Amino acid sequence: MKEDRIVTFDMLMQKILNGEKQYDFNKIKSAYDFAKKAHEGQFRSSGQPYIIHPLAVADILLDLGMDTDTVCAALLHDVVEDTPATYEQIRKLFGRDVADLVDGVTKLKKIPIFNRDQQQAKDICKILIAMEQDIRVMIIKLSDRLHNMRTLCYRPPHKQRNTAYETMNIYAPIAGRLGIETLHEELEDLSFYYLDPYSYAEIEKLLEINKQEREDFITLIKKRIGKKLQQLQSEKIITFAREPQISGRVKSLYGLYKKVFINHKDFNDVYDKYAVRVIVSTVPECYAVLGIIHDMFRPIPNRFKDYIQSPKRNNYKSLHTTVIGREGIPFEVQIRTWDMHKTAEYGIAAHWKYKEGIHGKDKMEDYLTWVREILEAQQTSDDVEEIVKNIKDELAPENVIVVMTPQGDTISLPVGATPIDFAYKIHTQVGHGMMSAKVNSRIVSLDYKLQTGQICEIMTSKAAGKGPNRAWLDIAKTTEAKSKIRSWFKKERREENIETGHTMLEKAFQRCRIRIPEEDYEKFLEDDMKRHNCNTLNDFYASIGYGGINIQKFMPRWKDLYYKLYCQENKTKEKLPIIQPVSKHNKKSRIVLDEIQDCVYKFSQCCNPLPGDDIVGFITRGGHGISVHTTSCVNYKAMLGRNNPEELERWLDVQWTDNQETAMQTSIEIIALDRIGLMYDITAILTEARIPIVHSSSRNLKNGNAIVDICLMIVNKTQLTAIFDRIRKVKGVLTVERASN
Length: 741
Ligand code: MN
What we know:
The structure is a single chain. The chain is of the alpha+beta class. Helix content is about 50%, strand content about 15%. The strands form five sheets. Strands 1, 2, 3, 4, 5 and 6 form a six-stranded mixed sheet that branches. The protein has a five-stranded mixed sheet with strand order 12-16-14-15-13, with no helix packed on it. Residues about 570-590 and about 595-600 have low confidence and may be disordered. Bound molecules: manganese (II) ion. Manganese (II) ion binds next to loops.
């Protein structure tokens, strides 16, 4: 571990004076004075005065070449949070720009640590919104995080893990995606150190072996390339606008870790642990140098990557090739121009560092398009997990394929992209109108995985109103395509979506044996509707219909909720001793079921009343008749609890007819240790009691238990209670409950 170097204000001052960039020195000085005074008496976990932290952050930002306001904001970044200083004070003294930056960083700090996916999407979106408003906020945050990581050893172990985890998962990838390689690598290496100290030590140890030999080797290679380039120049075979620079570098520890431990490569087979870098002035010079290198050393097949033609998603450009020298040792050579080099090292920060240089406003936009895309996708998708996945995919700067249109335009897509993604990348209308796709002139299926170098052609329909297919949502890989498909469905087909969504939900409920009366849907789904910003059930159905909500992911939780709300209640009910036999004669003035024949009634599936149960009726909304519940039904109780007059009016007293002797279908669910003969024993009891079985089924649970569902014809509650008592005595039976029909 590198020791953290303490930065004093004098050192900061020297750096500003020695640098080429112009800074408003007085403004920085007064920001420093203000921060120093505000943090007076505060200390870091290391025991050092607090001010060393803002100074170190400012120092990192100076190295990145950030502007005066960013450096001031860095010095002030913790004062609003940790000291009595206010936004207004900062605004008056240093202007709105600095105050807003400080405010942005303070807000970012309040976003909690990412541990639960549900929360994560929302929180990452908050971070992305902050980034989109002023990317400097994120660059300050990354520098702040870097210094906190450098001094993480002073924090308690559990804080170390949390911070390292958060850094590895969110901040390091963001730095990588913004192309700020210096921050990216150090953040990764530091997180790696805390998350997996053993592997870290192992990699360090591996690098130590033969270190001198390898370094000598790289020095030799550098010399050899340099000499060759000079020779070719003096022979006037090639001319360089400016002397090429040749340097060597070691791959980052985490980079090596990924290759060795994640990709399971032998350390000796990692060819690019050392790389030689040649920096030249123009793109033609890059290719010329590549030719020379391939002439000097033997290139390893399939190891050449042209990131100039197909830049990485974070705008990284270079030529990479792996070659073997006379010594038989492979090594990587990276060739790039000075401009590419600036981008490779500083990414979006190059905009400030080399202001007069290559990075116009448009370049900045390039870095942020993905942020906008994710935020837009979040508008059309309500599926949090999906958003999290998208963000993680987006944050991985590598894994790009480049596919061509028949006209020769190149389209970059993530690995695994399909013709659907390709079509939507070309144009939204091309996507919506797509009929089929050809790859290298052959028709392919729409879930075909495109590969670099292929030519893809999209056939569209001329017919107006042709739209995407719902199934495409599962096939498409990119956030962009999915989001466009969803907005099409969202906009064009609301009625249809509601219907589809409703049916999908009902089917899913059926499959999972969740049986809730329709009038309870709203209550049951309340939390999920809120979470997905749906005000009405129809909104919720519509979201399911257009694919914004993937209900499959809800099912486990819904099942739990269902068991908790409905079945638990049944269980406790069963356990309560009901000593008094239910009398059928003391319920005058009630509506007798027989007498409401005009009005259709059904027995609700949440509590499944049986003759003998105390019952009430609910006039369903939408004219579906009366649904009959038991008085101990959770829904009935919940309604009493809500005490909503409009609702209360809908409940009726009802009673069983006196001669209700018709048996009713009743389902029971038995959970038992799975064993041979279980079903036989249960069936024997039922047969003996002359209880007709309508159907029965059983399935095994993962834990070795079995669930047996039996549908019986039961006359009344007393009969059922008696049967329950007998079944409970069967060997291996754990629970017997009334299920729903
Ligand atoms: Mn800080």
